Amino acid sequence: MGFSEKQEELVRESWEMMKEDIPALSLHFFTQILEIAPAAKGLFSFLKDTDEIPQNNPKLKAHAVKVFKMTCESAIQLREKGEVVVNDSTLKYLGFVHLQKGVVGPHFEVVKEGLLRTVEKGVGEKWSEEMKGAWSEAYDQLAAAIQAEMNKLE
Ligand code: HEM
ipTM of the predicted structure? Predict the structure, then answer.
């Protein structure tokens, strides 16, 4: 099943809304991740030595924004090309970084759930099953591309 214009629009429109409040969004995203998988704390340089999630950490914000932005780009590519095409060197780099940090398959599910909960909070009344489905598919395809690269390096 292809990715429709409507699905792309749902992802794009929600990301536009969320972009207005990156600090709160980033904090919520990591709060969700750690609620689902407390052990994931140890993976992140900016979390492992603190008891609380830092409020204004540039690295934390950067990871949150990157995941959301790249998922949004995936949605656009899925609609335009039918597949996720990440620049080859970017993908190699992402595969390398995540492998080196000890990220494994199930972590991608945790981050997905955190992402969906954050979109739900971010868009409020606009949240719908259709929007959830669109973000899920775009994220899954991006995560699969990163994991395929990680597998190649292993
Ligand atoms: C680092 C993207 C999923 C854990 C990074 C970096 C990017 C990125 C761009 C920065 C690399 C650098 O320049 O240092 C993504 C995307 C994801 C994803 C697009 C999913 C689609 C995950 C998952 C985990 C994870 C599932 C594990 C729960 C990390 C860690 C770092 C990192 C631990 C190093 C950050 C640090 O400690 O400073 N990721 N990531 N990422 N990512 Fe991800």
Answer: 0.97
